[in-house]
Amino acid sequence: MITTQGLTKVYTSRGRQVSALQGVDLHVREGEVYGVVGTSGAGKSTLIRCVNLLERPTSGTVTVDGVELTALPGTEKRAGRELRAARRRIGMVFQHFNLLSSRTVQENVELPLEITGLDRAARRRKAGELLDLVGLADKARAYPGQLSGGQKQRVGIARALSGDPKVLLSDEATSALDPETTRSILALLRDLNRQLGLTVLLITHEMDVIKSVCDSAALMRGGRIVEAGPLTDLLATGESELARELFPLSEFGTGRPDGTVLEITFQGDTSGRPFVSQLARTYQIDINILGAAVETIGGRLVGRMRVELPGSHQDNVVPIGYLREQGLQVDVLGATATAPATRTGAVADLITGDRALENGVVA
Ligand SMILES: Nc1ncnc2c1ncn2[C@@H]1O[C@H](COP(=O)(O)OP(=O)(O)OP(=O)(O)O)[C@@H](O)[C@H]1O
């Protein structure tokens, strides 16, 4: 649904060039919630703003729902007709909501519809439906200044949905909210994803956001995606940095030097099986449990366990094979690493934003 290829972006600021994106290849599948996570300055905002060409990439392509946006005519300051039409199918929500304080909630949601030339009655009806969808029907006549942060973001989401988009971009939509409001906004995004079949691309610096709503994730660093894939695949990849962040095992014991320490990850069907006792019985070995935890990640139960088997890795080849045959992900600590799900890299470039679009106006 969203593909970027070799995306680069170089900003020029006071004669200095900053490579914000250095060759980003992103692939977001239709109907999924995809999270991009990374520390400050990693290039997340630049990436998401390049997806709807709010920022024009220096090089590379952006394709959304089969339309190559980077091939459509338009300048940095003013998009052409086709690009404006394509953008209407891409909603965007912002960290600071970007609502117009002089307009009521209803009028804020109607704003993008006014630009499309929809008549007043149809605008009112549509805005009413959208406010209902986000649970704010009773606030239609209120002004943004009278709303809580969570309510403002609901208005931002309703406004983003006014063009019946297939894709919703979320630029740190919950970063300005308290934890409970964050949960309710993430639940709303998840509901909209399911009810409307909406593909959601969000950026965040919080791993908890990835954990609670995303199907897939990418880790950005220095303008590059260093790791990406479905969470289930990442969790099954021994060396995945994201998996370790999502599900840290650092507090677990590390075992004795003469034993073999295994990290076992189980999800879905395998999560309910008593594999430790089966292993002990089948091979008559004493198993030392160093740590275990179960979490819900992307709505799916995932467990991780660190165990120690007596003897060397060589001595335990058969029991390890037995566990893997059960469908469990088994990583031997200290053994050769497996490669993460994907790795990409490359170079970068410049531009201005389109303030009108940030206020929900696809001009
Ligand atoms: N308009 C701009 N002009 C010059 N440099 C910029 C501009 N916007 C971003 N940058 C630089 O590009 C790099 C990536 O910034 P970006 O905002 O995309 O990162 P981020 O991961 O979203 O960070 P944060 O989480 O702090 O928003 C940073 O070095 C930043 O200083």
UniProtKB/TrEMBL annotation:
Q: Which GO terms label this protein's molecular function in UniProt?
A: ATP binding
> Where does the record locate the signal sequence feature?
none
Q: What SMART domains does the database record attribute to this sequence?
A: AAA, NIL
Q: Give the InterPro entries listed for this entry.
A: AAA+_ATPase, ABC_transporter-like_ATP-bd, ABC_transporter-like_CS, ACT-like_dom_sf, MetN_ABC, MetN_ABC_transporter-like, NIL_domain, P-loop_NTPase
Q: Which residues form the ABC transporter domain?
A: 2-247
Q: Which domain of life is it from?
A: Bacteria
Q: What keywords are annotated for this sequence in UniProt?
A: Amino-acid transport, ATP-binding, Cell membrane, Membrane, Nucleotide-binding, Translocase, Transport
PANTHER family cross-referenced by the UniProt entry: AMINO ACID IMPORT ATP-BINDING PROTEIN, METHIONINE IMPORT ATP-BINDING PROTEIN METN
Protein name, entry field: ATP-binding cassette domain-containing protein
